[in-house]
């Protein structure tokens, strides 16, 4: 029997637009409320460190604010960079956030790829896979609320105890990553798998790993970059803004381990406003966006729950205009995806 289909809005990163003095983290509250009113099922934030545009470094802090501002939305980290977090502190912060949200947290975890982030936190990137494989069972044990001992790559200690235990019997953990080891790790220990970038090349590589059921409830979530517009000037503004941001991030990714090398940045093909459509999963008026996103959903295995995260491009920096665009997505796009 086919799984459920749900739709989230994201990824909110709080990046500072040109000419703005401070990162607009507070806009997330307005947008999350707009997403809830529009009928979205979830709201997602992400994490990076040391970025000149103020990219959000503390996703769980922001999710705590959103927990107080919303009533129904699932709140997700997509993703928190697991090796950069102290395992015991991560277990505690997630448990508190689960209480604040009334049991609405999904803890999405990834390994990251930026060398400067690993160096800043004093983490050896060669150990990142072993850390993640150990971290997920550590979190599940910690969330029982009972005292325990642990000895593994992620953490070692005796007489440990995380209180309070989460409001639920454990918090859903979804894992990202594109390498074969990451795919098998998600199948083995996670409650879901996150595809951070839904390029065809990435989907062709990762989806065969989930052709067969894992034997438990499981969600496959896909981030889709969406530009909803029927105004050429509006679309051009969005493309210019995305090109500037993507240029900076491809410079950070160059020569590194982003996307397991599947879609490595091409230094011979600079990102320009005229070339960014290759990054989009859906662009155009509502009908075209719905059709393309339905094709994307239909690629996902029928045995799993499917969660689509709409990474919406906003041509305008004004949060209220962005909220109006979210309302339009709820009115014109969401019904066609369900």
Automatic annotation (TrEMBL):
InterPro entries: Bact_Lucif_Oxidored (IPR050766), Lucif-like_OxRdtase_Rv2161c (IPR019921), Luciferase-like_dom (IPR011251), Luciferase-like_sf (IPR036661). Residues 11-296 form the Luciferase-like domain. GO terms for molecular function: oxidoreductase activity, acting on paired donors, with incorporation or reduction of molecular oxygen. One of its GO terms (cellular component) is cytosol. It comes from the Bacteria. Pfam families: Bac_luciferase (PF00296). PANTHER family: LUCIFERASE-LIKE MONOOXYGENASE (PTHR30137). This is LLM class flavin-dependent oxidoreductase. It comes from Geodermatophilus sabuli.
């Amino acid at each position: 029997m086919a799984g459920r289909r749900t739709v989230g809005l994201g990824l909110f990163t709080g990046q500072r637009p040109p000419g703005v003095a401070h990162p607009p983290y507070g806009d997330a509250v307005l947008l999350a409320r707009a997403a809830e009113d529009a009928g979205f099922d979830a709201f997602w934030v992400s994490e990076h460190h040391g970025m000149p545009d103020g990219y959000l470094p503390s996703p769980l802090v922001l999710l705590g604010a959103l927990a107080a501002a919303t009533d129904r939305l699932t709140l997700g980290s997509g993703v928190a960079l697991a090796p950069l977090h102290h395992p015991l502190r991560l277990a505690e912060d997630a448990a508190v956030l689960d209480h604040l949200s009334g049991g609405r947290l999904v803890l999405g975890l990834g390994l990251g790829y930026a060398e400067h982030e690993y160096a800043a936190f004093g983490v050896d990137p060669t150990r990142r896979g072993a850390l993640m494989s150990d971290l997920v069972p550590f979190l599940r044990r910690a969330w029982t609320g009972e005292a325990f001992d642990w000895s593994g790559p992620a953490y070692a200690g005796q007489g440990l105890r995380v209180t309070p235990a989460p409001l639920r019997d454990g918090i859903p953990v979804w894992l990202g990553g594109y390498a074969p080891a990451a795919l098998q790790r998600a199948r083995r220990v996670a409650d879901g798998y996150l595809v951070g970038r839904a390029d065809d090349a990435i989907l062709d590589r990762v989806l065969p790993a989930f052709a067969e059921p894992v034997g438990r409830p499981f969600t496959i979530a896909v981030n889709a970059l969406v530009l909803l517009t029927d105004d050429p000037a509006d679309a051009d503004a969005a493309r210019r803004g995305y090109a500037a941001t993507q240029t900076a991030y491809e410079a950070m990714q160059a020569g590194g381990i982003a996307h397991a090398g599947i879609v490595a940045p091409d230094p011979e093909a600079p990102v320009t406003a005229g070339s960014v459509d290759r990054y989009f999963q859906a662009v155009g008026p509502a009908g075209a966006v719905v059709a393309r996103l339905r094709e994307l959903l239909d690629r996902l295995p029928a045995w799993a729950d499917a969660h689509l995260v709409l990474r919406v491009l906003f041509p305008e920096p004004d949060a209220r205009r962005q909220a109006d665009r979210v309302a339009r997505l709820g009115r014109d796009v969401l019904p066609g995806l369900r």
